[in-house]
């Protein structure tokens, strides 16, 4: 897009999605053009609150608007794939909350639509723009971790009380928050996965998706790498405080996520002959810095919890504000639309991160068979 032309954005889904409105409104070179919500009353309330003139209760009518360049989709999970495909076919750039889709077939359709349209598609994965991930990535890039030897992610969450499409959802269908940092750190895709289901959820939860597992744990091989990653996922009937985490084990230093919200993570440093450490000296808690300096000045404040618009939304109460990732996501998406840098994750990468979980659940159903992750 021409650098002097504002990028006109529409947000679809105004629960969690409304959090992004002021970020776009304060982003240099962007224009918050329209919002879309099925509920007319809620639509008008948000439009009035933020002074947005374009208001649609019908998504397909919004896509006909030639004044809209890009859509940011925050709709329920079952709508992600078809909404992304129709937007790309309508010539709009697409940012979509996770996951890309709930089937391998729909992941392929989104990738095909992106390639045919030539427009940007970016899955808005929060963890790879969280301050914790940015900290570990910086350590890795500087060589402080040494050779990466193993990666682990976990996302444990109590979904009781969430909308109707959540109850009974296979845990690995929503695994990108723990899969993504493992793959993004190496900049590679997963090639195969083995997964086992453990435990059993309540019978009334099982029937919707025919998925009985309380916890699913997967290991996946990473293409062109000798590193293997492990991820654990739970949604129901599991006693655990919310945890969205990843660990990176290196030959020189290792990063280990804190056990409990409010603690600091730990860096383990290898003792060597030239720099010997006693056992108590090996682990050390560290303060993770904020990375607002990487952002345009107008949106830097949105890395902090004080800037959260809807602090009572379950995604913030459980997710701790997503590690200050929201303004980084907006910056990455709009930078890709402008052509300043590729989308991260792009369509192919978004599909791979999503399909690790989809194929992992297939593996669990088949008793732990290895499943090759498709490439498109």
From TrEMBL:
InterPro entries: Gfo/Idh/MocA-like_OxRdtase_N, Gfo/Idh/MocA_Oxidoreductase, NAD(P)-bd_dom_sf. This is Gfo/Idh/MocA family oxidoreductase. PANTHER family: D-GLUCOSIDE 3-DEHYDROGENASE (PTHR43249:SF1), UDP-N-ACETYL-2-AMINO-2-DEOXY-D-GLUCURONATE OXIDASE (PTHR43249). It comes from Paludisphaera mucosa. It comes from the Bacteria. It holds the Pfam family GFO_IDH_MocA. Residues 7-123 form the Gfo/Idh/MocA-like oxidoreductase N-terminal domain.
């Amino acid at each position: 897009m021409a650098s002097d032309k504002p990028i006109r954005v529409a947000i679809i889904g105004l629960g969690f999605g409304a959090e992004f409105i002021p970020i776009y409104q304060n982003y240099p070179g962007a224009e918050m053009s329209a919002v879309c919500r099925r509920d007319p009353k809620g639509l008008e309330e948000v439009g009035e609150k933020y002074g947005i003139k374009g208001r649609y209760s019908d998504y397909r009518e919004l896509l006909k608007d030639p004044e809209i360049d890009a859509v940011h989709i925050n709709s329920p999970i079952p709508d992600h794939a078809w909404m992304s495909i129709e937007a790309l076919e309508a010539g709009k750039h697409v940012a979509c909350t996770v996951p890309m889709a709930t089937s391998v077939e729909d992941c392929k359709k989104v990738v095909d639509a992106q390639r045919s349209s030539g427009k940007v598609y970016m899955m808005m994965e929060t963890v790879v723009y969280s301050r914790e991930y940015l900290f570990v990535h910086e350590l890795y890039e500087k060589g402080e971790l040494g050779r990466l030897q193993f990666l682990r992610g976990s996302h444990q969450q109590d979904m009781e009380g969430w909308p109707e499409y959540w109850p009974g959802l296979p845990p690995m269908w929503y695994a990108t928050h723990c899969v993504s940092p493992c793959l993004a750190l190496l900049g590679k895709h997963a090639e195969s996965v083995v997964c086992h289901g453990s435990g059993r959820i309540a019978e009334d939860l099982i029937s919707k998706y025919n998925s009985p597992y309380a916890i699913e744990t997967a290991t996946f091989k990473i293409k062109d790498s000798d590193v293997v990653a492990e991820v654990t996922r739970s949604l129901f009937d599991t006693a655990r405080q919310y945890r969205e985490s990843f660990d990176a084990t290196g030959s020189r230093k290792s990063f280990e996520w804190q056990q409990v919200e409010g603690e600091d993570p730990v860096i383990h440093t290898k003792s060597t002959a030239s720099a010997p450490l006693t056992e108590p000296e090996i682990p050390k808690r560290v303060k993770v810095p904020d990375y607002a300096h990487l952002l345009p000045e107008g949106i830097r404040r949105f890395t902090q919890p004080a800037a959260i618009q809807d602090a009572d939304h379950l995604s913030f109460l459980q997710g701790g504000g997503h590690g200050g990732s929201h303004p980084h996501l907006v910056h990455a998406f709009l930078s890709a639309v402008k052509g300043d840098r590729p989308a991260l994750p792009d369509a192919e990468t978004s599909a791979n991160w999503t399909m690790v979980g989809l194929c992992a659940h297939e593996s669990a159903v088949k008793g732990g068979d290895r499943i090759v992750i498709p490439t498109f």
